Sequence to fold (155 residues):
Amino acid sequence: MVAVVPGRAWVDEDDVVPFDDPAALWKQVHATVAVEEVLGASDGVVPPEEEVLVAFTLDGDEDEAMAQHQLVNDQLLVLPLLQWEGTDYLPDLWSVGPGNASMVAEVDDDGELLLPCVSERNSDRLLTGLESLEALREAARRPERVIRKEPVGYG
Fold:
């Protein structure tokens, strides 16, 4: 991460308040992230090659200093990025998804992936077959497959 600045805050789904409003239930910081590599894009939209502006969601009681401390470092990360209608107020803003930060992966010195925002058991389950950056690169080179299943009815 290069820099972190306050974004928006909300008291409910429709009411935006200032970032430092004590009534805020959740808020976002906007982080400028240096991009080393883009692995793929399922929707055909690829982020810029040098830097991207990414929204990270915080609890309402968290502040900018805490986000700066957590996000501004030299850690190599894999960020699953998406754009959605909730960021239409800032067209170049990307979100981490799905599930906010749960799929943000740290890359250790051996190229292994770690999911710091979920439990170890869930991390192992979510990374099955994609335990390393190289495995993720290989998966990104494969053609995308969409499998549609009909819901199973009961009764």
Remarks:
- Strands lie at 3-10, 16-17, 26-34, 51-59, 77-78, 81-82, 93-96, 105-107, 113-114.
